[in-house]
Write a structure and sequence with these properties.
Elements (H helix, E strand, L loop, with lengths): L9 H12 L2 H13 L3 H29 L3 H7 L7 H33 L7 H12 L4 H18 L2 H28 L4 H9 L8 H15 L5 H6 L8 H29 L14 H9 L4 H37 L4 H22 L7 E2 L2 E2 H28 L2 H8 L10 H22 L5
Helix pairs in contact: 1-8, 1-12, 1-14, 2-10, 2-12, 3-4, 3-10, 3-12, 3-16, 3-17, 3-18, 4-5, 5-7, 5-14, 5-15, 5-16, 7-8, 7-14, 7-15, 8-12, 8-14, 9-12, 10-16, 12-13, 13-14, 14-15, 15-16, 16-18
The protein binds phenylalanine.
Phenylalanine binds next to helix 1, helix 2, helix 5, helix 10 and helix 14.
């Protein structure tokens, strides 16, 4: 495939891949998971997971993608010559399209909240704010419309291609996102008693740790790095042969973790400042936070108004850089395998994702009878991807790179033909051969009560 797109610059590549990593996972999932699991102690375990399992996993996907320079399904077959491994690519496309569907529902809620913040609608006591969320999210039409808007915006970025669509959008959106985040962090940390929120985030209380925390931290780390969905493999197929894969993985993991911690610094000081506990779970940013913003900025309503708008704009932007990457995995596959124009390939993914979004959204309230194994469709899709397909994808990728792909191929890609990071190679190989597969398997089995 000679005329494939590629990233035009190193900064573009890092920002686009970091854009995939930075998303609702950082700004929505990380704070509420940290809140539920005791704060700083959870963050320490999380960072260990990123370093020990996330980084080797990311580099493995990069090796496969860059070497094969093709879509994920073909890449997993081509690099070892064993076609059965294509199934990991298929799982990746399945997983990312399902995530795209239900993730867009939450992204759509952010668009509604952005609109409602501008219109000044989320004002009132705490029961009003809770009712606002329940009524809106269980409506038949509006959440579906917003999710569709979100998927269609993603679609149009994707259709423009790798350099003019994905890279250009990421170069614009990532710095904007960072600035928005810093403004809100500053406002939140200047509130009275903000220090107790900062303490919660940085002062570890190990008594809060349970075996479940390990599992939560691992799941969160993989989800946040977009690992195990063939997303990194697809993006790295657009990397240049000169890109230092180890450096790129380090930079992306660093940006991703920094943004997650900053998201904590944005939410916890504000919550503690008004005496609200940050352990509400998924509704943290839709029920707890609007209340927190109102109370915290009660004496400066204009600041509260602006902060609330900036916050939901930030969420929508972060979600968009991620949905773009989820969409690209399937689009690249259909484009290259069906030999159809990108436009047509993108529609296949868009329409599938819209259908998943509709089912997910309706299961959240309008049709609560839409359940599988006793879970709402939304929870089921989340469970299926984050707890099963994602760890399975990451596990198989490590086994594949560690044991199946010829060692010389892995080494050539890791070291850029023996020019960089040569000393690190044995450590990397040890991690992907032994440490990652064993740890991921243990955690995976643990969730089903097997070990
Ligand atoms: N990493 C993204 C986030 O943190 C989610 C994502 C998962 C993106 C899988 C692509 C693939 O929100």
């Amino acid at each position: 495939m000679n005329n494939r797109g590629n990233f035009g610059s190193r900064i573009g590549l890092v920002l686009a891949t970091a854009g995939s990593a930075v998303g609702l996972g950082n700004i929505w999932r990380f704070p509420f998971t940290t809140g539920q699991n005791g704060g700083a102690a959870f963050i320490i375990i999380y960072i260990i997971c990123i370093l020990m399992l996330g980084l080797p996993g990311m580099i493995s996907e990069f090796i496969i993608g860059r070497h094969a320079a093709t879509n994920a399904v073909r890449a997993y077959g081509v690099i070892s010559g064993k076609r059965v491994w294509r199934v990991v690519g298929v799982m990746g496309i399945l997983c990312s399209t399902i995530i795209l569907g239900f993730y867009s529902v939450v992204a759509g809620w952010c668009l509604q909240y952005l609109y409602a913040s501008v219109a000044g609608q989320i004002k009132g006591d705490s029961s009003y704010v809770a009712r606002y969320f329940t009524e809106f999210s269980s409506d038949i039409a509006m959440p579906v419309v917003w999710a569709m808007v979100f998927i269609i915006i993603t679609h149009f970025v994707i259709v423009k291609g790798v350099r003019k669509g994905i890279e250009k959008a990421s170069k614009l959106m990532m710095p904007t996102l960072f600035v928005l985040l810093l403004i809100i962090v500053a406002a939140s940390c200047m509130l009275p008693n903000a220090i107790s929120g900062i303490k919660f985030l940085f002062y570890p209380d190990f008594s809060k740790l349970s075996s479940n925390v390990m599992l939560e931290a691992l799941g969160q780390a993989f989800f946040s790095l977009s690992l195990g969905t063939a997303c990194l493999c697809t993006y790295s197929s657009y990397f240049s042969k000169r890109t230092n894969l180890v450096n790129a993985a380090l930079q992306i993991a660093l940006i991703d973790t920094l943004i997650a911690v900053l998201a904590g610094l944005m939410i916890f000081p504000a919550a503690f400042s008004v005496g609200v506990k940050p352990d509400a779970g998924p509704s943290l940013i839709f029920i707890t936070l609007p209340n927190v913003f109102q109370q915290a900025f009660a004496s400066m309503p204009l600041v509260g108004y602006v902060i609330s708008i900036l916050f939901y704009a930030l969420l929508a932007l972060a979600a968009l850089t991620s949905t773009i990457s989820m969409h690209e995995i399937g689009t690249a596959f259909f484009h290259e395998e069906l030999k159809r124009p990108r436009r047509h390939a993108a529609w296949i993914v868009t329409i599938t994702a819209i259908m998943i979004a509709i089912v997910s959204s309706l299961s959240c309230g309008a049709y609560p009878q839409l359940t599988v194994f006793g879970m709402s469709m939304m929870d089921f899709f989340d469970f299926l991807t984050a707890n099963i397909l994602l760890p399975a994808g990451a596990l198989l990728t490590c086994i594949y790179v560690g044991w199946v792909v010829p060692r010389s191929t892995v080494m050539t890609e890791f070291t850029n033909r023996h020019t960089v990071c040569i000393r690190l190679f044995p450590a990397f190989l040890f991690m992907v051969r032994f440490v990652c597969p064993i740890c991921i398997t243990l955690v995976f089995l643990h969730q089903f009560g097997i070990v």
